[in-house]
Design goal:
Layout lengths: L6 H24 L9 H4 L1 E7 L6 H13 L5 E5 L3 E6 L4 H15 L7 E7 L1 H30 L2 H25 L5 H29 L7 H33 L2 H23 L1 H12 L8
Antiparallel strand pairs: 1-3, 1-4, 2-3
Helix pairs in contact: 1-6, 3-4, 5-6, 5-7, 6-7, 6-9, 6-10, 7-8, 7-9, 8-9
C-alpha cells in the first residue's frame, strides 16, 4: 500500500471536510440559526412531556402545532414510550404552554387530568457549565493519552501523532452536526468521549506494529516501514470497525430516540476514527520524523 506517498491526498480530504463544517457554523449563525443546533440542555428552553394515549405522527401531526403556537421553527420532538411525546422548544411562558397543551388536548381528545406528565425549564447557565465540563474532560483525556503514549513508545512524536487524529475525529463529527443541523445534547458529549477512546485503540495497534517492524527494517526506509505496518493491520482495523458499525447501525434504526441520539455520532465517529487511524496518524508520525530531522533508527 502507498499510504505515505499519497499522504497529501488524505490530509486534503480531511481538511476539506473539517473546513466545510467550520464554515457552516458562521453561515448558520448569520442565518439566525446558531452555529450549532443546540438542544435545550445547552441552549436553555422548555421541555414538555405529554401522554397522547394513541398513535401519532411527529412530522405531520405534532410538529406543525408546536411551530404554529411557539414560533420555534426547529422544535425537537421525540417519542416517549409507545404513546408519549417529549417536546423541546425555546423558552416559552406559561400562557404559551397552556395554548400548546390545549391544542394537543383538543386534537387528540386528551382528558386534561393525567396527560401532561412533565413541564420543565432548562437554564442556559447550567448548559454553559456542561459545555465547560465536556471540554475539560476531552482536554484532560487527550493530555493523559499524550503522556502515556509518549512514555510507552519512548517518543513524543508517537504521542502527538496519536492525539492529533482524535481532534480530527471530533472535528469531523462536529462538521456533520453543523451541516446536518443535528441536535447537540448530552448524548453528543458521551458519544464524543467514547469516540476518542475507541479511535485511539486502532492507532495504537498500527503504532505497535511499526515499533515491532523497526527492528528488521532497512535503515532509512521509513516510508516502506509505515506502509508495510499499515498493510499488516488494516484488515484487523476494518473488520473491527465494520462489526461495531453493524451493531450501532441496527441500534440507530431500531432504537428509541435517546438511543438514536447516542448512536448517530458514534457511527460518524467510528468511520472517521478508522480513517484517521489508517490514513492520518501514521503519515503524521512520518512528517514529525522528517521535521525533527532525527535519523531513522531500528531501536524502539
Amino acid at each position: 500500500m502507498n499510504i505515505i506517498a499519497k499522504r497529501k491526498i488524505w490530509f486534503t480530504v480531511s481538511i476539506i471536510l473539517i473546513l466545510a463544517g467550520l464554515l457552516a457554523m458562521p453561515i448558520n449563525a448569520m442565518m439566525g440559526n446558531g452555529i450549532l443546533n443546540f438542544d435545550v440542555e445547552f441552549a436553555g428552553g422548555t421541555v414538555m412531556e405529554i401522554n397522547i394515549g394513541q398513535d401519532f405522527d411527529i412530522t405531520n401531526d405534532i410538529k406543525p402545532v408546536v411551530v404554529e403556537i411557539t414560533g420555534d421553527e426547529n422544535p425537537q420532538i421525540s417519542r416517549s414510550g409507545e404513546q408519549g411525546v417529549v417536546i423541546k422548544t425555546k423558552s416559552i411562558d406559561s400562557e404559551t404552554r397552556t395554548k400548546l397543551y390545549d391544542a394537543l388536548k383538543e386534537k387528540y381528545n386528551l382528558d386534561g387530568m393525567n396527560d401532561l406528565l412533565n413541564v420543565d425549564d432548562v437554564s442556559p447557565t447550567i448548559s454553559t457549565e456542561m459545555q465547560l465540563k465536556a471540554l475539560q474532560a476531552l482536554l484532560i483525556a487527550s493530555i493523559l493519552m499524550l503522556i502515556y503514549i509518549t512514555f510507552r513508545f519512548k517518543d513524543w512524536r508517537f504521542g502527538l501523532a496519536a492525539v492529533l487524529p482524535l481532534i480530527h475525529d471530533v472535528l469531523i463529527v462536529l462538521a456533520v452536526y453543523s451541516i446536518g443541523r443535528v441536535p447537540v445534547n448530552n448524548s453528543f458529549i458521551a458519544a464524543i468521549l467514547t469516540i476518542v477512546g475507541y479511535s485511539i485503540n486502532d492507532t495504537i495497534v498500527v503504532f505497535d506494529r511499526i515499533r515491532e517492524n523497526r527492528k528488521a527494517a532497512k535503515k532509512g526506509d521509513l516510508e516502506g516501514l509505515i506502509d508495510r505496518s499499515i498493510s499488516q493491520t488494516i484488515v484487523r482495523s476494518i473488520n473491527t470497525s465494520v462489526t461495531t458499525l453493524l451493531t450501532i447501525t441496527v441500534l440507530y434504526f431500531l432504537g428509541v430516540q435517546s438511543i438514536k441520539e447516542f448512536a448517530l455520532p458514534l457511527i460518524v465517529g467510528i468511520i472517521a476514527g478508522t480513517y484517521s487511524s489508517i490514513f492520518i496518524a501514521s503519515p503524521l508520525w512520518y512528517e514529525f520524523q522528517n521535521f525533527h530531522k532525527k535519523p531513522f533508527s531500528k531501536t524502539a
